[in-house]
Amino acid sequence: MTLAANGAMSVGGNTFTRSINLELGRAFNTQGALGSAAFRTLAGVPSGAIRLGADFYGKSNVSISLATIESGEPFEGNAAAPGEPCEISLDFASDGTWLATLDATGSTSGNWATPTTAGVGSNYYIRFTRTFFSGGFGNSATATTGWLQLNTTRGVLVFNSGVDSSVSADYTIEIATDSGGSNIIATASLITLVALLFGI
Hints:
This protein is mainly beta. The chain folds into 2 domains: 1-61, no CATH class; 63-196, Immunoglobulin-like. Helix content is 8%, strand content 35%. The chain has helices spanning 20-23, 37-43, 67-72, and strands at 63-64, 75-78, 86-92, 97-101, 107-111, 113-114, 125-134, 140-141, 148-149, 154-160, 166-176, 184-196. Strand 11 and strand 12 (184-196) form a beta hairpin. It is elongated and about 65 Å long.
């Protein structure tokens, strides 16, 4: 999650946006010292005094990265049999994971948040910008989206109707901490999805 931007803050407590222990993934009643390494890292204060409220406002113990997306692409898959359609999808789940489903070829996965946690996506927004599309009649690829809250699965899909040998689309994927995208914290460019006919 992310700690509140203002108001009361505590080391313990059982309110997720107000408890430093819960943000660090600890039990709410765990003993801890403000000067410890974990607290300093979260506060972003490597030395000196730490203020219980101000130094923790808006801080998150979650790391966001699209590096595993970039290392996994291009995402290519084949149809199961000659003449059959083929769908390639790339989906981002609210728990911080992603899944590329490559039709009959199988799937590959990774994470966009560390650690992965149920509901972590509710603090983030994603935008897919389609920068290239190649495909004939009857084929399609998800168009550019606006900023979408990651409180549910969000993704893109490339569809080959079974006529063209290859249908592909490139996307730029961005993750932000706000619905207007003024604080973009991760970007991956030229992420390619390719839907192929059987045997290609």
